[in-house]
Amino acid sequence: MVNLTGSFISPSADATVSPQLIASAGFLASVLDGLTIWKLLGTLFLAAVAYDQFKYHYYKGSIIGPAYKIPFMGPFLQSVNPKFTEYKAKWDSGDLSCVSVFHKFVVIASTRDMSRKIFNSPAYVKPCVVDAAHKLLGKTNWVFLDGKAHVDYRKGLNGLFTRQALTMYLPRVEEVLNDTFKRFLEKSAALKHEPTPWMPDFRELMTALSCRTFVGYYMSDEIVQKVADDYYLITAALELVNFPIILPYTKTWYGKKAADMVMAEFAKCSAKSRARMAAGGEISCIMDAWVKAQQDSAKYREKVANGIEVDSSEKPAQVLRDFSDYEIAQTIFTFLFASQDATSAASTWLFQLMADRPEVLDKVREENLRVRNGDRTVPITIELLDEMPYTRAVVKETLRYRPPVIMVPYLVKKDFPITDKITVSKGSMIIPSVWPATHDEEAYPNADSFEPERWITGDAEAQSKNWLVFGTGPHYCLGQTYAQLSLMAMIGKASMEMDWEHTPTPLSEDIKVFATIFPPG
Ligand code: HEM
């Protein structure tokens, strides 16, 4: 160190030297002089806050949203425990509104037309999945495909959900319903018909229904029960706001363990289905139908490769490649993942709405018995369901009145000019909403009232633009026909086998948001 003052100390700390430094360097030096590590950190912090606000305003432009962002985190705490009323306030605030949580800028579309525009703009947007989804569903999962790759993959799956294909799986639905309603009655009798929460039972019913329809009896009752027990861990791990890395004993950790277990079980089912289909077994579930389509495609490809002439009638509708057991498991897992929460929500609402409206339940019961000529053991078929306009109307009205999925997050792939004046920047999240479209007074007069008749004597059916319950565009719900038919089958059979009442609680009029929407009491 240089000896400036005769003592071995720093020049700026020397009482005699420092005034000269101030005098020579002016303002900057005076700032530096007072600079401590805390001041430096404070200044950096204020700069970061200013940058965060500036960035928010830059993205926000003329979109409606809070004038200032809570530094960095924005309304993070609100989004950890989202309230339906807060979403509603957002929709009511404008056609497009925004919010910024941490580094994510989020635009929410409220109107039907804005929402439709997003759903139908695959050049600009793609479905947005939380980071944890890649870890739980596997990076190579088809749900992460975009554009042509997605369209091509989906073509191979669409055939599994046609009405004709569903005919083959409906017996599974019937078996699960028979078994479950018997258990419901036993449980209720054991509880001496005292009021008790039934939502966990509806969730279990929906898991069993999905598992049996997707993989038939390749899965044991015990494993179906385990999937039902553990599934909520997967939902919790996939909440919009979650810790980005998987730390032991966190929600994502438990979710990943549960997902791995389900995936491994589905892979075992695939191996069994493969063997059974190769041996000429009958299609009993969605997995069988897909495996059989792959085996038929392989035979066709082989013939063509060997120069054997094949009649055009023998050519499969979709010539598929072979998929490994793991790939099949991954895809079937996405069906469970996509259906579980939405169908659990729909069935819970259906049971509650029917209990609150016994006259509607009576009509459903009357119709179900009538089409079976009074014999409630007559099995469910698509033709039978086609003869039940009232039961269908009840299911449609439930889905309109309480759409399980109220918003569908998408990611902006490239700057998206959503209106003449507003361009949403690449990297933002953009969320089309379902609820406002299904509660639009113009399309559905008295929208806040449950009126199944609007689907029979009214013109609700003609309001297809507002029917966003299953989305629209290239990612519209693959399982929508199956979901509606199985809900019809469920409520129809329940009406014939059981009677039930709802004991309202102070929460009964609320709407709880947990991935989908639920009645909390
Ligand atoms: C009441 C029940 C259901 C509701 C309300 C519902 C709703 C939705 C919605 C809103 C989407 C997003 C659509 C979009 O982005 O345009 C979706 C996608 C999807 N749903 Fe459903 N869903 C239900 C049941 C099911 C069932 C039972 C299955 C499978 C068996 C299923 C499979 C899927 C799949 C695979 C996708 C993603 C499609 C793609 O990205 O190509 N859903 N669903």
Task: Kindly describe this structure.
- By secondary structure, the chain is α+β, with helices and mostly antiparallel strands.
- The protein has two domains: 1-38, no CATH class; 131-518, Cytochrome P450 (Cytochrome p450), CATH 1.10.630.10.
- The protein is built from 18 helices and nine strands.
- The strands form three sheets. Strands 1-2-7-4-3 form a five-stranded mixed sheet.
- The longest helix is centred in the middle third of the chain and has 32 residues, at 325-356.
- It is globular, with a radius of gyration of 29 Å.
- The relative contact order is 0.12.
- Bound molecules: protoporphyrin IX containing FE.
SSE map:
Layout: H1 18-34, H2 37-60, H3 76-80, H4 84-93, E1 96-101, E2 104-109, H5 112-119, E3 125-127, H6 131-137, H7 147-158, H8 163-190, H9 199-215, H10 221-237, H11 251-278, H12 286-305, H13 325-356, H14 358-371, H15 382-386, H16 389-401, E4 410-412, E5 416-417, E6 423-424, E7 429-432, H17 435-438, H18 480-497, E8 512-514, E9 516-518
Parallel strand pairs: 2-7
Antiparallel strand pairs: 1-2, 3-4, 4-7, 5-6, 8-9
Helix pairs in contact: 6-11, 8-9, 8-18, 9-10, 9-13, 10-11, 11-12, 11-13, 13-16, 13-18, 14-18, 16-18
The chain binds protoporphyrin IX containing FE.
